[in-house]
Amino acid sequence: MIELEPLAPADAIAAYEARRGRLTETFSWEDLFQDEHATQLTVAKSAGFSILKDIDAALVKALAEGQTLAQFSRDLTPALQAAGWWGRKDVVDPSTGEFKRATLGSPRRLKTIFETNLRVSYAAGHWAAFERAKVDRPYLRYVCVLDEATRPAHRARHNLVLPVDHPYWNSWAPPCGWGCRCTLQSLSERDIARLQREGERLFFEPPADTTRTYVNRRTGEVSEVPDGIDPGWAYNPGKAGFRAMQATTSLSDAPPDLAAAAAAVPDWLLRPTAREFPDWFDQAAAGGRVEPAIVVAGVFDPTLLTALRSRGIEPASGAVTLSQRTVRHMIRDTKTARGASVPIEVLRHIPEHLDTPRAVLLDRRDGAVVYVFDVPGETKRAGKLVVRVDFGEKARGESGRQDRIMTNSVRTAGMTDLATLRNAGAYDLLSGSLGESV
Fold first, then answer.
1. β-strands 161-163, 139-143: how paired?
2. CB within 10 Å: which end of the chain, N or C, has fewer?
3. pLDDT, tens digit, for every residue of 18-49?
4. CA gap 256, 275 in Å, rounded
């Protein structure tokens, strides 16, 4: 039976809900890789059997009711057997058309499905708690189950303590492989003092990573995987799940099609937290290469999506993205010299301006969405962010793979007179207020 840390189920369930909107049939576990799992639910060899809805329903029930593996398997097995997804069979690989002998449903497969999905969901729920509490509990501790089944590389990291925001957790964050039982535990300064009094050695240099080259047989993608981490697990499942939760939290009451549009973002694309964004912005503004070079800064909320639809505009995605190139454009010297730029300190909080704008307008001339926000010290002017709907560009994710993405892209920012924005011939007020009727 799987053993999990006690956790308010709402966090784990919310993390799972962020994935279940996309049920993706696959043939191989390599068809979806690493953080692609944060927003999609799949089971290898599910292609062609229409079983994902049954597995999804069983996992939701297991999370909500705290079921054991035995209860999960007992409830799900009859549906899988009725669908013909059981035992060893010849199945067709959709990518090649070839028949291959494979094990479909079995007690062992159900154990893997149950443990993997629950552990990933709980990891995301934990990360949500880490983010909420990191002012008072700023450290994370790597904790192993110290028995004969523990991997040596994981045992070597037992009691490793680093800040919540330390980049080490971007790869070494449990679960770090199939069947990994390690966890992360948040600590306060008082917790650390207590553990040290009890003789625990907490602060030490992480073991030096050695890596091996791994080639994904389905996509051809080449990556360097740290020794001790299984291929496909060299990322932070908890953080990826938490970010997927962030992207969908405000959409819980939206109609299904609107919610899907607002959540449709590339699986690797990151949405920095309010604390992380200023650091990313500073690095992007400084020049040189910053990773990632493009981030999700916000989302079109359901009300805005509805307003756009009523005007014949149907975005393919609800994500609002910002690139390093645009950041550099915002702060270029010539624009600053003529006083048209938004103060840098204000730009460092773009996610807040997108989440709680003073008003949102539609530019009647070119179809751009304009977010309007107050700037300290200004009474007759306001800041604006100009967002192009369904803007296509290429961007490189953390894995190094370059994807073609279609999002709503922040293209520029600037100061503008409120009187200009009140011109009904040029702008259509979608939400909020500019102080006078438009």
1. antiparallel
2. N
3. 777 678 888 898 888 888 887 788 999 998 88
4. 30
